[in-house]
Amino acid sequence: MITELNCRILENRPLGPDCFQLLLEAEQEIEIRAGQFVKVAVPGFSLRRPISVTDVEDGVIRLTCQIAGKGTAALAAKRNGSLSVLAPLGNGFTLPEEGSELLAVGGGIGTAPLIGLIREAVKRNCRVSAVFGFRTPQQALFREELSALPLRSFYAFESEGENVITLLRREGYENIPFAACGPVSMMEAVDEIMQADGEFSAECRMGCGFGACMGCSVETRSGMKRICKDGPVFRRGELLWKTLR
Ligand SMILES: Cc1cc2nc3c(=O)[nH]c(=O)nc-3n(C[C@H](O)[C@H](O)[C@H](O)COP(=O)(O)OP(=O)(O)OC[C@H]3O[C@@H](n4cnc5c(N)ncnc54)[C@H](O)[C@@H]3O)c2cc1C
Ligand code: FES
User: Fold this and answer.
1) In the chain, where the domains are located
2) In this structure, which ligand is nearest to the CA of 232?
3) Measuring from each residue's beta carbon to the nearest atom of ligand 1, which residues come in under 6 Å?
4) What is the pLDDT of residue 17?
5) pTM for this model (two decimals)
6) Per-residue confidence (pLDDT) for residue 54, from 0 to 100
7) Closest alpha carbon to 59 in 136, 114, 128, 5
8) How far apart are CA 189 and CA 182, in angstroms?
9) Cα 51–156–238 angle (5° rounding)?
10) What CATH number has the domain spanning 3-89?
């Protein structure tokens, strides 16, 4: 059930040049699945900002945010007190079966919603590979965290002439079931080269965030869909990239 939670800020710390991590303690425990998102009320702004849940551990909700405009800049500056959060929103990723294989492909801040999925897959004894791309090594997220987990992680940096596509090809990963999130151009390229089943997490400007306003409706191969409620995670083959560009 979608709930408005009053969350205490336990930590708000910078991660690299334009990103920050928020740890929020909710007043009540709620179940949030990997790939679902929340809408955070930023003091001084009328519209809540949609942010994916990086993961939830012992009731603490972790959000990883990039400063994209005034709202996220205000959130970065809010170091203590509490925030109103609407959660859980959206459908989330399909969790891999025990002992199966999972490839997580992420670009930039799109790596954030994949962390909960990766952690869940590791718990399920899956063979997990993560292929993450960023512009520069300074912008890389989750590097230490992934290196401490039993999985194979690869980082591609545009500044070094590499991207997730060249890495996926080099490692021969085209046949592994995957979950991907990142810029539309990256997801489109992933869609072109992969031969296995997969899921994509999409993004767009949102109004309500829970299916009421139709503001996030996009045309898909199976008709009009609301990204906030029918997504943000869609099965491979459902999204029409041209409507998201
Ligand atoms: C399902 C979903 C999950 C997301 N997960 C994350 C995440 O984990 N980390 C993160 O840093 N960002 C995430 N975003 C993007 C984030 O919502 C925007 O960067 C943020 O809302 C920008 O707000 P702003 O006030 O700083 O920017 P402004 O440009 O000033 O915002 C103006 C308005 O446009 C909306 N808006 C602007 N850019 C976006 C965008 N890319 N997506 C949706 N709405 C936007 C804002 O919410 C606001 O209502 C996610 C977006 C969606 C839809
Ligand atoms: S944002 Fe209102 S229906 Fe999706």
Assistant:
1) 3-89, 101-244
2) 1
3) 37, 47, 49-52, 64-66, 68-72, 109, 112, 203-206, 232
4) 85
5) 0.98
6) 98
7) 5
8) 11
9) 50
10) 2.40.30.10
What average pLDDT does this structure show over 170-185? 97
What is the distance in A from the centroid of ligand 1 to the CA of 203?
8
* Residue 41 DSSP label: P
Residue nearest ligand 1's atom 11 by CA? 65
Q: Residue 112: its pLDDT value, please?
A: 98
Q: How far is Cα 57 from Cα 11, in angstroms, rounded to an integer?
A: 14
CATH number of this structure's domain 101-244: 3.40.50.80
CATH topology agreement for domains 3-89 and 101-244: no
Share of residues in the chain with pLDDT > 90 (%): 98
For atom 50 of ligand 1, the residue with the nearest CA is: 51
Ligand 1 test: best mutation among 51, 91, 208, most atoms within 8 Å of CB? 51
**145 to 15, 57, 130, 140: CA distances (angstroms):** 13, 14, 12, 11
Q: Relative to the CA of 71, which ligand 1 atom is closest?
A: 25
User: pLDDT category, 79, cuts 50, 70, 90?
Assistant: very high
| pLDDT given at position 118 | 98
Q: What is the mean pLDDT of residues 23-49?
A: 96
Q: Which ligand is nearest to the CA of 207?
A: 2
